[in-house]
Amino acid sequence: MDIKPHVVVEPPDGNGLRKIVIDGKPAGRVWSHHELQKILQRAGVPPDADIEWRGGNCTVWPAHSWGRRTAGTVMAVGFLATAAMCLWIGMKDSLDALTFAGRVTGFLFLFMAAVELVAAATCFDYWRNRKKVYSGPILLLGALIELFVASVLLLMYAFNRDRPSYTLCLALWVGILVCASWSLWVLCRRRVWTVLRYPGRVAVGAIVSTLLVITNLAYTQVYLPSMTRPLVQGSAEIGMPTLNSEGSKMYLRVRLHLKNSGQVPVHIIGSIYWIQAKLASDPKDQYKLLKPGELVKPPGRELSPQEEISEDVVVEITKPETTGYEAISAQVQAYAFRQDRMTVDPAFKESGRWRGKLKEEGKDDDPPGPPKDYIRYQSTISQSSELLNLTRGRERVTVWWLYRRRPVVYVDVGSPGDRKPFNFTKPNEQRRAVDLYGLALIRGSTAQMPFTELLKEAQTHRPR
Question: In terms of pTM, does the model score above 0.85?
Fold first, then answer.
């Protein structure tokens, strides 16, 4: 006579699982009658075997399959979306970030992507048969990381944009935040941390690690950009003048300098110099412009620490003895960006267009109300990390070299759709670029020499 196995189905636990015991040995936990039949078939229990039901008969299955599958699918999708976002940021920043802190942040995002992938895989165990004891805590860790990533991205998006706009990334981050909040609510209701031996210590470790990560991000993305500035110096030297053989023309050599005296490379995004003559007959100390020009052509050149750019410019003064000049002055001015804050598209150097050409292309009204003539350089820029590229959005830099009575250079950084009028009386308009990219306006020291002294020196060395 065959002895049939003794099968006991225990009452549902807090999660709706019912424990199966065959001949006094645990055979697993099941969610439904269908899963029970599978376990019995694998154990070789005949279909007509008697089953002892405890805490409810074969119709009592509190955890419905469709609810478990829906919850597991939603959690897995949230984890996979977070992993994809972390992987995208981590792969780019760990290799291409402009700063060491940015690359460390990239590796941190790669680590979080790996944890999210493990959590997504664990969903199949937790919401199916729960063979792994720590599947619940792993899901809780994944949900916490999911919430952290979404919160950081949304906060950086809000703080880094003057006018936040709806984008596909924004919708994704909001979706991840909602999914993370729901996952934490579900997991906390199930008290998944109770399987841990010391849940309090684990929670303290997680909180400390999170605070360290937040502090690192705040230091590298907020504090450093606001505290450090490029250190570039400009200067001019007025050299020895000479006269032609007739004495009708004087040639004055002026040497112009730009030097990076700081410790980080910079991009010279725009530059200008003025060589002027002070009129002796003008009581208001007015100057006559003798020669303006660009010192760094084309703009966008990199200037390494302690590297210097020098150029000699020759000014021709006709009939020097009757000009009535009191003094000759020279000055350099430039705009520089820190290279560890942004990179300029290589096409920027070749993007120079005169107003006439822009008018033919229908772009001469950018910005509105330009002066009589100008040349414009423009290109997109890349942030120091992919994390900033995503949260700040696409931006571009525009440099105008304006021809007026006294030519000037004006720099603007903003979204491609922005159109801003010139405003030379309010330098705070460029405050955002100063804070985010380390934009520095270099006003070189003014070199000045009395004209009578220059003329006397030229006459002394006049060729006979």
Answer: no
